[in-house]
Amino acid sequence: MKLARLVAVAVALALAGGPVAAQRLPVQVDLPVVPALEPALPVLVAEAAGHFRGEGVEVGRFLLTGGVSIRNLLIGGRASFGVLGTEHIPLARTAGSPLKAVASVYDRLHVTLIVRSALRGQVKSVQDLRGRTVGVTAPGSFTWSVAVTFLKRAGLEPDRDVRLLPVGTDAHVLYAALQTGRVDALVFSEPVLSRAEMDGVGFVLVDVFDPVVARRWIGSDLLLVGVLASTESAIQAQPEVAGALVRAIARGLAYLRSHGAEEIVRLVAGNPKTSQLLQGVPRELAVRMVNRIRRGFGTGCLSPTGYQAELRRMMETGVLRQPVSFEEATDARWAGVCPR
Question: 99-103, 158-162, 250-254: lowest mean pLDDT where?
Fold first, then answer.
């Protein structure tokens, strides 16, 4: 009689989606992520802390690649979800590919101009880059569009006054391009920025981590920069997966806001699946990087103000020709809309 009651309870829990149902195998996904520490860290923390598995998702592998490649993977159906720069959403939608952002992973501008140290006495402003070579990851990338923003707002024409050189997304290659003088300046962020400073290879020309500087160049210190995105069809086909990914990343963001940099670095570097971005980075330098960027980690909600600032930047510099509304570009049913 007691056994029958236990069986009945187990069946009822299974039908209700309780503990028995929760033991089902997790959904398997691969997740492409841009190889910049700022947008990647919430995802890596969510994996290392077990948040994805806790939400019923097993991430098979993290593919660290550029935003243009991730945009193409999503549009081509070779990946269902990916973490990339927000700018790819309106660019894709105006080209007829309905991408949507479902959560924010970083809420401040983090890509900046790093100039090689040998030019410290010659390059004191963005205007001084005239006639020089500026490295970006790829044409159409977030680094490319931010480079265009800096140059145009300094009165320079990217195609005429400077040479924009695609260097790729590998942090070691980007660092070497600056170190060897292949480029005079580089538009990137961590994990290259602090390493270049520490080694004396480069210096920051525009400190976008300073809110006053960010407002001067971008018009706002709040910017919807990096997002978890998908196509409308993939979201419609896999709403449970979308919700699980958003919740896991939100938990990763909460961890970043509530834990010290040393603990964060220990967590990510100690997991073989998430340590790739910090490979070869001394622990002390990794801690410095996390402390530098942590102001941009929010709750995952999607900010209308941040999106409008990013849209305005793209429109003013000619990166985007046609506006795309916040409602078109986002699906906030899981992450929510930020108060501003």
Answer: 158-162
